Amino acid sequence: MPGGQTSYVDTLRQVCDHVVSEHPSRADLVGWLQDNFAITRRSAADRVRFLRKAGVFELTDDRIALGEHAGRWHGEDDEGILIGLLHSRLQYFGEMLSELREGPRSLEELRLAAKNYNLNWDSDSQGHRRRGWLESAKMVEPVGNDRLAITDEGRTLLAKLKIHSPGSKQELSRPQLPPEPQSDGTPFSPPKTTPSTTVSESDESVTENAPSPAEALANEIRSASTDSKNPDRLEIAIREAFQFLGFDAEKLGGSGKTDVLVMAPLGKNDSYSVTIDAKTVGSGSLGDGQVDWVTLEDHRKQHNADYSMLVGPNPSGKRLMDRAVDKAVAVLSTDQLADLCLQHADWPLGLQDYRALFESGGAFDTAPIGMAARDLNRLRCLAVEICDKLAERTGTFGPLTASQLMVMVDQPDKPSSEQEIQQTLDTLASPLVGAVQGTASTGYVLATAPRVIQQRLQQLGEQIAS
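The chain above was modelled as a monomer; its predicted structure follows.
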């Protein structure tokens, strides 16, 4: 879910609030997710599909509504209902919680334990997703050395779940938990209904394949952040992260040198550089006592850099943030950097957009980056809708101008001006794109099939990259 691992449940609650208040169609909900969380339409559609398969949503008369148990969770604010519902639909969900009963374990250990349930995963990405739900529901919590521990809430829930034994084939059929209390005082009774759909690892729409490059990078950043015995690992991950974001990045390290030097080559007047100090902390939380502020300032001067940044797991404490503001050092958590990589995979921004990461000392404010991603999303949606309207209407009405399109396109959050539509048409009509043809005065029509447009843009990107 958007928002990072500790926010899965909060994000879902926002989505459910929208569903309850607006009763959207599936297409409307996909568009709302796309606009509000700066993700691609495909990613938004995948999330809606998953939540339907998981029983959170149901489709009635082409309108999205909350399923029975999701409705109870939403109304009662009991995270156990939600986790019980997901456990009934996803393999190795409650079982992963059960694996923590005997003590904290790393995601790698939990991945290996999954083999006992006939799940042969090649990476920790599936565990990361389950961890996101369990941690955001306060059923597990991170402890030292990048390990997870079950909480008291998790143990209480676990006692009510039907857990499948290692080696047995799990049948995913109905929510195990928690239905309404019984009148005789016993906590739970069997569920009243059996959902019509289930989720299995082989279900094509929710199959968890090998992680994408962005997911693999995000996983490595998080894992390396607490590997205090191998600090080079985090430095390498940070270098690769900023290279992924479009920067020139070099790992230096060693005595008297910054860990990572990042450069944004934007020409003579706009280029900027950043010295980055990487901190691994086995306990998973970076405090002021682990930071040498004088050295950070020396590194910035040594490399004649414009900005200085500190990256580590869960930077916390008023003293750390006050010192960062005083020393003009931007502070970025490793979770935030991982999430930026995932967002960049959907909405790749430019180096000038990412300048907001470094400009102010102290904790990083994600708002400017999120706003830039939403603007990019809105412009993409506008281009797609323009092409849709040209495909639908020009056969009947002939070429359409920007002023005619302005009354046809639907951009509820920020209606598009005629000038913005004309600028988008100019882009689509450029020889390099060739999506539409025409002039501002005579109007435009589609110039070719969408697959040809895709081919042109893909070839252009490949040639520039090479």
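The chain has three domains: 5-158, 213-365, 372-465.
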